[in-house]
Amino acid sequence: MKRKTPEGASFAQEAEGAMLFAPSADRNLAPIAKELAEIAPGTGDALEIASGTGQHIVAHAAAHPQVHWHPSEIDEDRIASVNAYIAQSGLTNVSRAIELDATASGWATEPAYDLILLSNLLHLISDQEAQTILTEAALALRSGGKFMVYGPFMRGGVLTSEGDHSFHTSLQAQDPDIGYKDDEWVQKIAAAVGLTVDRVTDMPANNLAFTFLKP
Ligand SMILES: C[S@@+](CC[C@H](N)C(=O)[O-])C[C@H]1O[C@@H](n2cnc3c(N)ncnc32)[C@H](O)[C@@H]1O
């Protein structure tokens, strides 16, 4: 089921041609790229779930030229935006974006990736949908592959800043099924689907980056 992304939680403005520009994606690119540099494989295939505008994947592909990057998105305007960023970049190690509802069971048909990247989606979907993403990601990873999940989280069931409290509350006011996931819950679900915790990093603006490993 396609869930409507909550108002204001995924803002992007029109840029050149089909390209969209999300100020938040611009802000969090540098910390995500820094974390990625610590965990990315030297070669192989990387899937990005919920690529958004495409601002991130072209930067990651430029920084990791021996890795082949596969963007994906649920939204058709964003797929067009990702593809426009790729075309403008001239990079040859990025495929065109595919349409993917990451919350729909069954998209992982075989272990095809050495890295999967997901930023800023888990708080916009339900627990059940988040669980499906973790399950499918575990199936889609090759042995030794890593799944990096970035975003805002509760810590031990607690919203730890004023900003997080008001964002989570505004999300739940729009849809009671969605909102921040708990850091311990995410790790428990990851373990249940066969992923081990490789690394958890405190990120700017009270975000977290989890790196899970498929043994
Ligand atoms: C807050 S934006 C994050 C975009 C990008 N990952 C970033 O960090 O800048 C959330 C994105 O998730 C996409 N999305 C929402 N539901 C999705 C789903 N079920 N499967 C894949 N993408 C989804 C939206 O279209 C939107 O581009």
Structure report:
With 215 residues, this protein is α/β, with parallel strands linked by helices. The protein has a single domain (13-213), classed as Vaccinia Virus protein VP39 (Rossmann fold, 3-Layer(aba) Sandwich). Helix content is 36%, strand content 27%. The longest helix has 17 residues, at 23-39. It is globular.
The biggest beta sheet is recorded as:
8 strands, mixed
Q: In percent terms, what proportion of residues is strand?
A: 25-35%
Distance between the termini: 31 Å
Quaternary state reads single chain
Unreliable stretches (pLDDT < 50, length at least 5) are: none
Instruction: Specify Rg, calculated over alpha carbons.
Output: 16 Å
Q: Count all strands and give the number.
A: 10
The CATH architecture can be given as 3-Layer(aba) Sandwich
Shape call: globular
User: Which fold name fills CATH's third level, the topology?
Assistant: Rossmann fold
Sketch the topology as an H/E string, one letter per element: EEHEHEHEEHEHEHEE
**Total domain units:** 1
Total helices: the number is: 6
CATH class: Alpha Beta
Q: What's the CATH superfamily, by name?
A: Vaccinia Virus protein VP39
Listed once per kind, the bound small molecules are:
S-adenosylmethionine
Structural class: alpha/beta
Mean pLDDT: 96
Relative helix content:
25-40%
